[in-house]
Design a protein that fits this description.
There is one protein chain. Helix content is 48%, strand content 16%. The chain has helices at 32-44, 68-78, 90-93, 97-111, 130-164, 190-204, 209-218, 224-230, 249-257, 301-313, 359-363, 372-402, 407-440, 445-477, 485-491, 501-507, 526-529, and strands at 10-18, 49-58, 84-87, 114-117, 122-123, 176-179, 182-188, 265-267, 270-271, 281-282, 289-291, 332-334, 342-348, 351-357, 369-371, 508-515, 518-523.
């Protein structure tokens, strides 16, 4: 009887990985291509191994095994189509001491999988002795500690860059692009920046987030995710729910609340416990890194604050679902309890009327409500009067700025300057004549020095007086008109005959209603006006 000794042929997959966190990620020896080449050369010298293919994870940390390429490899193993895994070294397989040991020492042997780490000279079919069983965990522990050290260095570096205002995130906010001269700085991307301005403008005009999203979808405007794809960026987002990502109310809301559009860099909104536990922790505002004036603003601060007030005070609970919010949303308050008034629609004889009422006063049986039509007419009349006062104020301030200082006072100061210059010239000549008097023997050395110090003190005094007088003259001549740009916010409505949501929000900060006869209007910039 003849016994056949057929040698087992292993069906192998090479696993390659490159991490963005590795210090040596730029070295060719750790590149994906080099790892593949090393594995291919190894297999050529081992006739008992058939290399079926490769699985890779590019840009994935080794501290977790939740990697796409590795999970695909495990599926192939469980299906029985792979019984050998080959890696360049243990660090390419993983840097988590406990998890790496679990796979190599327990899971792979249970599945009948041969494991080979080329540069570490480890082969599970050969290294089965006590010494090997001790060395392997030690190497995994070293790799784990290396990953921890790299994580600390990366976090520290990111923190320093954030404090400087450098952007360290993977994706630039919609409306901006990277500055090619400084990768941590933003520059405006013109087309999406105009869309951002349109979104803020539409919100001020009274359109809801849902309406704005639907409008942009109907006009065919690419959403932020689609725009990044069209720009050639490899962008993925957890917010995507279909093949083509569309605008949504949530997307509009994130844009409207993002301080990046006023030039402020806000980072470290999310962190993790450590390099192993990747569960996100959302930090409160006081723990985030916030640096102002780091790049050119798309939205001015006044407009941004206007929208924040509107978002924060919006009494319409269905603002995201409805297409249009109530006209006076965001600025009406109860004069009794301070609560926000809610808009409600009532029908009477086939006509619809909108009223604003206080929900708390209603519960207590105190009817505090006002008809939108009445409030509209009253506010229009009040605003017309207010704008008229602003126009008069603007003319008065401009007239005052044109009135020159007293010519008599100007001439008096000019004469003082001339007098001080003459004094400076006189004492300068006295200083120059001292050496000649010393040479002739009129003055001895000590007397010459005393006179020199006295004349020099007079010269210094004259020069200082001239400088102060000239500064006074320059100040008078260049006194700027006091900063009253806020007035333009009102007088641009000088011919107002109808109200718009934009006009209401840009001129009023609050309207407090106690009853129909007791209504107070709080205009924007009330303090500088007074």
């Amino acid at each position: 009887m003849q016994i056949s000794h057929t040698k087992k042929i292993y069906q192998a997959y090479g696993y390659v990985r490159l991490s963005q966190d590795d210090d040596d990620k730029t070295e060719e020896s750790n590149s994906i291509s080099h790892q593949k080449l090393l594995i291919k050369n190894f297999v050529q010298n081992h006739k008992d191994i058939n290399l079926v293919g490769f699985k890779k994870d590019d840009g994935c940390s080794g501290v977790t095994f939740d990697r796409k390429g590795f999970q695909e490899l495990m599926e192939i193993i469980r299906d029985g189509n792979c019984d050998c895994v080959i890696v360049k070294d243990l660090s390419r397989f993983g840097r988590n001491y406990i998890e790496t040991g679990k796979f190599i020492e327990r899971l792979f042997p249970a599945l009948g999988v041969r494991f080979i780490a080329i540069n570490d000279s480890y082969d599970s079919t050969i290294n089965t002795g006590f010494a090997d069983s001790m060395i392997l965990p030690f190497k995994n522990l070293v790799n784990d500690m290396y990953s921890r050290d790299i994580s600390i260095k990366v976090r520290s570096n990111f923190e320093v860059r954030r404090q400087k205002g450098d952007f360290v995130g993977p994706h630039i906010p919609y409306g901006y692009k990277r500055d090619q001269k400084n990768k941590g700085h933003f520059v405006i991307d013109e087309h999406p920046a105009e869309i951002v301005k349109q979104i803020f403008r539409m919100r001020i005009e009274g359109n809801s987030q849902q309406f704005i999203a639907e409008y942009l979808n109907q006009t065919g405007e690419p959403s932020p995710i689609e725009y990044k794809k069209l720009s050639g960026l490899n962008y993925q987002s957890g917010f995507k729910v279909r093949d083509k990502s569309l605008w949504s109310a949530q997307t509009i809301g994130r844009i409207l609340r993002n301080e990046v559009y006023i030039g402020t860099m806000v980072q470290k909104k999310v962190t993790t416990v450590n390099y192993k536990v990747r569960t996100p922790i959302y930090l409160p505002a006081d723990q985030q890194v916030r640096v102002e004036n780091m790049h050119e603003a798309i939205i001015d601060i006044r407009t941004f604050q206007l929208v924040q007030n509107l978002l924060g005070n919006n009494p319409c609970r269905s603002a995201r679902k409805d297409k249009v919010v109530y006209f006076f949303s965001g600025i009406l308050f109860c004069g009794r309890c301070g609560a926000k008034l809610e808009g409600q629609t009532f029908s009477y004889k086939e006509k619809k009327y909108i009223y604003y009422l206080c929900p708390y006063c209603q519960k207590e049986g105190k009817c505090n409500r006002i008809k939108e039509e009445v409030l509209y007419e009253l506010l229009l009349h009040i605003l017309q009067s207010y704008v008229a006062n602003m126009i008069q104020l603007d003319r008065l301030l401009k007239k005052m700025s044109e009135i020159p200082f007293s010519q008599k006072e100007m001439k008096r100061v000019e004469q003082q300057i001339i007098s001080k210059r003459q004094e400076l010239e006189k004492y300068t000549k006295f200083k120059q004549s001292l050496h000649e008097d010393y040479t002739r023997g009129i003055l001895d050395k000590e007397e010459m020095q005393d006179y020199y110090q006295g004349y020099q003190a007079r010269c210094n005094e004259a020069e200082k007086s001239i400088e102060q007088l000239q500064l006074k003259m320059a100040e008078w001549r260049s006194t700027p008109v006091m900063e009253n740009s806020w007035i333009g916010n009102f007088i641009k409505n000088k011919n107002i005959t109808d109200l718009t949501k934009g006009i209401v929000l840009s001129t009023l900060s609050a309207v407090r209603i106690t009853d129909k006869r007791h209504i107070s209007f709080e205009f924007s910039f009330q303090q500088p006006f007074e």
